[in-house]
Sequence to fold (426 residues):
Amino acid sequence: MNPDPTEGLFKMIEARRDELVDLTQTLIRFPTVNPPGEAYQPCAEFIGRRLKERGFAITYVHAAGTPGDSERHPRINVIARRETARRGPCVHFNSHIDVVQPGAGWTMDAFGGLVRDGKVFGRGACDMKGGLAASIVAVEALIDSGAELPGTLEISGTADEECGGFGGVHYLAERGWFCTPRVDHVIIPEPLNVDRVCLGHRGVWWAEIETHGRMAHGSMPFLGDCAVRHMHAVMDRLEHDLYPKLAARRTDMPVVPSGARHSTLNINSIHGGESEAAGFPAPCVPDSCRLVIDRRFLIEENIDSVKGEVRELLEGLVREREGFTYDLRDLFEVLPTMADRNGPVARSTAAAVGRVLGRKAEFICSPGTYDQKHIDRIGKLHDCIAYGPGILELAHQPDEYVLIEDMVNSAKVMAMAARSLLFGTA
Fold:
């Protein structure tokens, strides 16, 4: 009987456990904090040097002119491509290299890469340098397995996902890096739990509402018109009219956690009135108040309707409230996306989860967006899912960590899935 090539692949990954941990630690020690976008170039070049030694052609793409790009903080992306002599599909693993600010509450060095109790700690350990390291080790093991692979393997480390991806996957997708026939299948190792295959995400609309007033002396507010009071009327209308409607809507998308299967609206921030000076308030009636909203919507909802119901609420106040005027400004929008759970990349990844973990994979969708939005919407490449190590709830938390066992298992899953996709057996 012929030996099972997958078992040999798994043993090779197990033997590289310490190497996987070391790689994760090294990646964490690049403090790629975004904003502003620190250490992108050295981190990208480290990835490039490693993969060049394994026969990958390396391309660095500077997303010049994108938000936040500057001489001090260049938006640098790395794409590593290894083509074989045999025709076949291209399987691409995409990970973002940026991380959020460490914030307060850490009990250790946020960029130290501490290993303790079977975990690697550090900002980005979970989201998503553990996933990047696992994908690199998975692909390297697949190359070293001795199989005569068809097709092409790609790995990318991209910028700015934490701030919308405009200097990363968005920029690359606009320039053809993520589209067929150049790429056929994409796995994004986001931290969505090691036994889950993430098919997509809800939509998002960020917008700013500004109410207007008229400035006057604070001792004679009757001579002015308070923009903050007008904004209070907006918030009251959101509370009593819109929030109940959103809570009543529920999607058939398998979004986790269950609360995110409803439409949601978060008030991100509110700004009104004159700035305080030396700790004292300005004695003025505020003539402007701004509210930033974060509306997450379902695949069953239409973006025009999502915007329209907010505008309708505001127009109702124009009719009903004396002196009420407003501006509504779009800040950012992404449509919901969901890959086919019976498509090649979802099917092969789910089968690998079953083989490695001995239990059936759970198909989910993410409550928030990630770079699949650009690959799907701009690149028109729909065979794209997220799968990787890391516990979703730990992302952006102090003392963030990734379980070493999860990284090893996810590397096995990614290697097996990539092999199936390359050989067309998915």
